[in-house]
Write a structure and sequence with these properties.
Number of strands: 6
Helix content: 40-55%
Strand content: 5-15%
Distance between the termini: 42 Å
Order of helices and strands: HHEEHEHEEHHEHH
CATH architecture: 3-Layer(aba) Sandwich
Strand order of the largest sheet: 1-3-4-6
Largest sheet: 4 strands, parallel
CATH class: Alpha Beta
Structural class: alpha/beta
Number of helices: 8
């Protein structure tokens, strides 16, 4: 039983693989056949990759970018002609606090989110004249199955890696943080607010930890913030 059936939600689930053009086009064609329009796109597909830069292969980096970043572009490009024709639409790109602040051992994942932030900012300028809104939602740690789907770089699995101790420490801390993270319902409320607002903000932080980190980032020098993050993550 899937979540829609379990929760008895008035939703229709359509399979869509953001890494596959045919799958994306098929899903959009089905929606358009049944509903004749698409008002909101929420780009939320993604996964995490653990490993320091020296321990991650280019193939692993390309794979996570294919889903987390190019998947957003693929789906967005397929939907934009529809929204332009409607002269209306809202695109919500679910980034992360990791799209604003760097963390160790997650450099590949964080790079995808930094890229998504820049893409979203640029799209806002491009699409404004078509009355298409582009909004970024930046959650902190969220209590979902995200941690179950995180991948560990192959080289990071080797116990004689120069980064084994750091990787294990950060990985354990991250999984614990996610287990006690913000309930997903709270993030959903932020996304709903962003998607339904007539005049939405360009960005929405989601989760108390995200707000705390960005407040610290705003009020500290780069050096002091780095010391703060080391204390929070590595001690």
């Amino acid at each position: 039983m899937n979540m829609v059936e379990k929760e008895k939600l008035s939703l229709q689930v359509i399979q869509l693989d953001v890494n596959d053009d045919k799958s994306v086009n098929s899903a959009i064609e089905k929606i358009m056949t049944e509903s004749k329009r698409i008002d909101v796109l929420i780009n939320n597909a993604g996964y995490g990759l653990l490993g320091c830069v020296e321990d991650i292969s280019l193939d692993e980096v390309r794979a996570i970018f294919e889903t987390n970043f190019f998947g957003v572009i693929r789906v967005t490009q397929a939907i934009l002609p529809i929204m332009r024709k409607q002269r209306n639409g809202t695109i919500v790109n679910v980034s992360s606090i990791a799209g604003k602040v760097g963390f160790p051992v997650t450099s590949a994942y964080i790079s995808t989110k930094f890229a998504l932030e820049g893409l979203s900012e640029s799209m806002r300028y491009e699409l404004e004249k078509f009355s298409i809104k582009v909004i970024i939602v930046e959650p902190g740690a969220v209590r979902t199955v995200f941690s179950d789907n995180m991948k560990l770089a192959k080289k990071a699995m080797v116990h004689n890696s120069s980064y084994t101790q750091l990787t294990q420490k950060v990985s354990s801390g991250l999984r614990l943080l996610l287990e006690h993270g913000t309930p997903p319902e709270e993030i959903a409320k932020v996304i709903l607010k962003a998607a339904t607002s007539d005049n939405p903000d360009p960005r929405y932080l989601a989760g108390n930890d995200a707000v705390m980190i960005m407040e610290a980032r705003k009020n500290m020098s780069d050096t002091d913030f780095e010391k703060f993050m080391k204390k929070e993550i590595l001690q």
